[in-house]
Amino acid sequence: MTAETPRRLRADAARNSEKILRVAREVYAEGGSDTSLEEIARRAGVGIATLYRRFPNKEELVRAALEQKVAEEMSPAIRRALDDSDPLRGLATLWEASVSFAAREQGMLGAVRRSGALASELSAPFYEALILVTRRAQIAGHVRADLVPDDLHRITVMLLSVLSTVDPDGDGWKRYITMVLDGLAPARPTALPAPEPLRQWPSWGSPTR
């Protein structure tokens, strides 16, 4: 076997994986979370054995599809927020990206929940950025000093919950991000009760509908 043969096999495997993921993303975006792996393989133009070699079960396929979407759509927003010299604008960027992603990907996130795939670690970079940008805003005096990281998790879940009450194809949810940002201003803040520890680590898979 020549050196060209392994390289060609690897390239073929990469193309097949990409075709499978593209079809899976289309299926889950359409709300077809119950679609069988056999049907996804058929639509991707590959054999079921090829699919199983890369994705041994639906949980692995759903997770890989979500990971690809996060890398394409959330990671750039996280970088923009971290690079922004205005921490309040950075906070808005992060929350808008998160809610917008959840609005567009309700089918995908529903598939994640139904498959049992864990998405919390995929959202960890988002929360790490949210905490860092908030700290910058606190140091700059733009956000109340008694806000703690657990508050940011809960606020994000609250913002995601708005999607069940607005047109998911519109941007009515932006109103509530503006309200939250205004509410975090340090001017004459009301003293907050002591924060409670999180009972569960939230993720983009948190219910929106």
Mean pLDDT across residues: 85
Say how many strands there are: 0
- Percentage of residues in helical conformation: 55-70%
N- to C-terminal distance: 54 Å
Helices and strands, in order, run as HHHHHHHHH
Chain oligomer state = single chain
Structural class: mainly alpha
The number of distinct helices, counting runs of at least 4 residues, comes to: 9
Percent in strands: under 5%
* Shape designation: elongated
> Could you give a short account of the major beta sheet?
none
User: Unreliable stretches, pLDDT < 50, 5 or more residues?
Assistant: none
Structural Rg? 20 Å
What does this protein look like?
The protein is an all-alpha fold and 209 residues long. It has 9 helices and no strands. It has helices at 4-29, 37-44, 48-54, 58-83, 87-104, 106-115, 120-139, 149-161, 174-183. α4 crosses α6, α5 runs antiparallel to α7 and α5 runs antiparallel to α9 (174-183). The longest helix is centred in the N-terminal third of the chain and has 26 residues, at 4-29. The protein is elongated, with a radius of gyration of 20 Å. The mean pLDDT is 85.
Could you write a compact summary of the structure shown?
By secondary structure, the protein is an all-alpha fold. The chain is 66% helix and 0% strand. The model has no long low-confidence stretch (mean pLDDT 85).
Task: Name the descriptors.
209 residues, mainly alpha, 9 helices, elongated, 66% helix
Give the secondary structure arrangement, pairings included:
Layout: H1 4-29, H2 37-44, H3 48-54, H4 58-83, H5 87-104, H6 106-115, H7 120-139, H8 149-161, H9 174-183
